[in-house]
């Protein structure tokens, strides 16, 4: 056909430009009229009554003069950007549209790239997301992180920041939207507000879960800590899964590793368990110490960690092995085998302190059972909290928890929960001389569990 398919320029067929007086040859003129009819048919009707049957090729245009515009507003329309990208302009101003959203599941650490713009990544395990340099990603680059299995840490490149901080932790069960300014990163502030509220000193102190138990495989040396959360003032930490620490080794990060803050495991000792929070990513760990206070814990091995709160205690026996125990709700411990702390021990009207098997260095409520005998009739034995001072046994005085029933050298039994002093002691006294047996079934050491 005479129309050039590349330029669209129409050229008449040869022999169709006559001169005055020339006889017209019908062959080329018939070809011309046929060709004109074909080209008119192939032209796009201005009223839109017929569609295109091949791609429409527009001029590249510019942001101020788009290749496809409008008669009433020629500066609004579409144009071809550099790199073959399609551009949209309104009144000569470029309009940006987001690229398609990309979803992917991740199971470990990941580096976010420029190609992850508008991506949504769901992390099903603990992970660190390292962000490529802000200048490389460029302004307006954005990205969503979902923590669905464990906490996820967002770590910008080098000294760059996110919300002005070195890192941002997305707690398990939450998500964060991140945007790049070209030099720094910012979130939608949801995590910042959540973490700020979570770290507010006004919310108090508690332990939710994190129950202690003898490890089933190595009960004499290993302690399991169940999943849960721990708070003390402004410090908070949680663990989504149980961890195990052993008492016969110095502390090392991670489950299954040593737990002692210093030294070697000792016989007949008390080891207090403290929840730890890693400063960099908020992860959970536990350290054992003979200190009953955080201030007394040896922190040489704990660089990068904050001691949050005491979460329990375990006791060793004469062989330096963990006494088997069952931990009940609200910080209540029961020994698998009761400890016999007094065997036919002398008791008299002279009040005396009796040491029992409970945590050392703190007051606890001992779960005691006693058996009492005396050659005197109508006798009573009294065991009580040393904080009450010196009491006197007997029905006419301060009472008792066990007594001989009107028969000399008979036996009587009793039980009670008695608070100790910080030296593991209770007080004992009787209305008259006799002998006493004391079994310690366990203790209540309050750390703040709400269940």
Please tell me what the overall shape is.
rod-shaped
Mean pLDDT: 90
Radius of gyration: 42 Å
- Count of individual helical segments: 3
- Tell me the distance between the termini: 89 Å
Task: Report on this structure.
This protein is mainly beta and 451 residues long. Helices cover 7% and strands 39% of the residues. It contains three helices and 31 strands. It has a five-stranded mixed sheet. Strands 23-24-31-26-29 form a five-stranded antiparallel sheet, with no helix packed on it. Strands 5-7-9-10 form a four-stranded mixed sheet. A hairpin with a 5-residue loop joins strand 1 and strand 2 (86-90). The longest helix has 17 residues, at 26-42. It is rod-shaped. The protein starts with 25 loop residues before the first helix and ends in a 7-residue tail after the last strand. 29% of the residues are buried. The model has no long low-confidence stretch (mean pLDDT 90).
Short characterization:
The chain is mainly beta and 451 residues long. It contains three helices and 31 strands.
Could you name the key traits of this structure?
31 strands, 3 helices, about 450 residues, mainly beta, five-stranded mixed β-sheet
Structural topology:
Blueprint: H1 26-42, E1 77-80, E2 86-90, E3 93-95, E4 102-106, E5 110-112, E6 119-123, E7 127-131, H2 134-137, E8 142-147, E9 152-155, E10 168-170, E11 175-180, E12 185-187, H3 190-198, E13 205-209, E14 212-214, E15 222-225, E16 228-232, E17 235-239, E18 243-250, E19 258-260, E20 270-278, E21 284-289, E22 305-315, E23 325-328, E24 332-347, E25 352-355, E26 365-373, E27 380-384, E28 402-403, E29 411-419, E30 425-430, E31 434-444
Parallel strand pairs: 4-6, 5-7, 6-8, 7-9, 18-19
Antiparallel strand pairs: 1-2, 2-3, 8-11, 9-10, 11-12, 13-16, 14-15, 15-18, 16-17, 20-21, 20-22, 23-24, 24-31, 25-30, 26-29, 26-31, 27-28, 27-30
